[in-house]
Amino acid sequence: MAAQFPPLVAPSVLSADFSRMAEEVIAVERGGADWLHLDVMDGHFVPNLSFGAQLVQALRPQTNLVFDVHLMMAPVDPYLEMFAKAGADHIHVHIEAGPHTHRTLQQIRALGVKPGIALCPATPPEAVAEVLDLVDVILVMTVNPGFGGQKFLASQLPKIRTLRRMADETGRDIRIGVDGGVDVETAALATAAGADMLVAGTSVYGQPDYGRAIAALRAAGRRAE
Ligand code: DX5
Ligand code: ZN
């Protein structure tokens, strides 16, 4: 299937005020967010620590938003069940995180969670060719993962185009998400290349009006139609 419009907008709580996390989540739900992006960092796969399944579980009763959990972890397999039980609706794992991604994605599906595959900027699109039948989302990193507030890597746009073609060839409904440095300018570029899900940390939580920020991102995606 082709890219869907308008794109979904998934604010990343990594850029939220951690001392008021429940309020921050409710605020983006009221502001029209489609999904809530939760970035889990292990200090090993990426050079930063964020939070674990306890926070996911604590936030679950606060909102009806789809929980889009991005695990920047290696190994990741021992923790899948923990995040599924905590309330993840989607779990993204990195193709770079281990040699057995095929099994990992099957395990996520068996847990009743939608699997996603994430690719770091250095990874070519062909790296995920053999697992496309197992995923519902492809998450293209447009920064090196580990921190919010980094600059969008325009070098990743051809990769988004290639992955959109590869996803369409499966005949399945696969969302292509873009994660890192997404703002109204880069959202337009990414959606024109075939992305239909926008992760946004700074460009939502760094703005005074979350609802306006979310609408602006969605509208930037519409421009590409
Ligand atoms: C980066 C994370 C992103 C991050 C994006 O490692 O995966 O989801 O929160 O933040 P911004 O939108 O500020 O680049
Ligand atoms: Zn992320």
Automatic annotation (TrEMBL):
Residues that hold substrate according to the record: S12, H70, G146, F147, G148, G149, D179, G180, G181, G201, T202
Q: How is the cofactor bound?
A: Binds 1 divalent metal cation per subunit.
Write down the required cofactor(s).
Answer: Zn(2+); Mn(2+); Fe(2+); Co(2+)
Query: What pathway or pathways are given for this protein in its record?
Result: Carbohydrate degradation
Instruction: Kindly state which keywords UniProt assigns to this record, in alphabetical order.
Output: Carbohydrate metabolism, Cobalt, Isomerase, Manganese, Metal-binding, Zinc
Lipid biosynthesis: present as a keyword of the record? Answer: no
* Residue positions of the active site: D39, D179
- Top-level lineage group: Bacteria
What is the uppermost EC class here? isomerase
Q: What is its EC number?
A: 5.1.3.1
Q: Which family does it belong to?
A: Belongs to the ribulose-phosphate 3-epimerase family.
Q: What is this protein called?
A: Ribulose-phosphate 3-epimerase
Record Gene3D superfamilies = Aldolase class I
Give the CC-aspect GO terms.
cytoplasm
SUPFAM superfamilies noted in UniProt: Ribulose-phoshate binding barrel (SSF51366)
A single GO BP term for this record reads: pentose-phosphate shunt
Explain the purpose of this protein.
Catalyzes the reversible epimerization of D-ribulose 5-phosphate to D-xylulose 5-phosphate.
